[in-house]
Design brief:
It is built from ten helices and six strands; from the N terminus they run ββαααααααααββββα. By secondary structure, the chain is mostly helical.
């Protein structure tokens, strides 16, 4: 996996493309957001989507750093997290109504935190707890039907705001659940005890040796491709939804979109 992409007329490897993309988005992430009175109802979706994009961007920066340091095996947890954020974002903006989705998410987050706060009240800031409870009460008064639906959903042990599991979300908005499974294998070391183990015999003794079977150079390019592709598509869908500037590659109609179907 050693594709080259063109950025501003220059051919670049996947890792160079990821570095460029992170640099391109760094200044945009620092900009203050504003919402006009006419678009006030879009405030909640904007807050939710911005939080998802910022978190994915932060993880992608970490991936870019780890790749430069040659720490390829450390990337899988970040890669899976970015994938989950990308899936959640797609579901949020494509399924149902964004405004209602935002309210479901906010209510679910408030209930999640309040349940935790009851158990850990001595370790939390009193003001943080009060702010969360005020927000939750406000949603309960303003949107009682959504509040009750989310509360009952949680009683049925469905703790994601959508009512779906992570795997079900993937099936809704992505095409290949096996990619997500592969990331989970890497994160939880499911295969490494059998895949990465070699036991050569030296002087009649078996030597236990763990060494990745994958070519690390190839793996680094693949990880840069998936992370860069997800970040690229995530930002551009976010920009399209809320009127921000798109990020474009010179070959924008080509392979730069290929990871959108992961």
């Amino acid at each position: 996996m050693n594709k080259n992409y063109s950025v501003n007329g220059h051919s670049r490897s996947e890792r160079e493309r990821l570095d460029w993309l992170v640099g391109e988005l760094t200044s945009r992430m620092g900009q203050n957001l504003s919402v006009s009175q006419e678009g006030a109802e879009e405030l909640e979706p904007l807050i939710v989507c911005t939080s998802l994009v910022r978190l994915a961007f932060s993880h992608a920066r970490a991936v870019s750093f780890l790749l430069r340091e040659g720490l390829v095996e450390s990337i899988a947890p970040l890669e899976r997290t970015i994938y989950e954020i990308w899936v959640e974002f797609r579901y949020f903006v494509r399924e149902g109504n964004k405004i209602e989705n935002a309210r479901r998410l906010m209510i679910n987050a408030g209930l999640e935190f309040s349940e935790y706060a009851i158990k850990a009240r001595r370790t939390l800031s009193a003001e943080a707890v009060r702010a969360c409870l005020r927000s939750l009460r406000s949603y309960k008064l303003d949107f009682p039907e959504i509040y009750e639906a989310v509360r009952l959903q949680r009683k049925r042990r469905k703790y994601h705001w959508s009512g779906l599991s992570r795997s079900e979300l993937v099936k809704k908005v992505a095409t290949d659940i096996t990619f997500y499974k592969g990331l989970s294998w890497e994160v939880h070391a499911v295969l490494s005890p059998i895949r990465d183990l070699s036991m050569p015999t030296e002087d009649d003794d078996d030597v236990i040796n763990f060494q990745p079977v994958n070519d690390l150079e190839e793996q680094a390019e693949l990880q840069a491709w998936t992370v860069g592709g997800m970040l690229y598509n995530l930002w551009n869908e976010y920009a399209y939804c809320f009127g921000f500037e798109l990020v474009l590659l010179d070959d924008d109609e080509g392979d730069s979109q290929s990871s959108s179907n992961l």
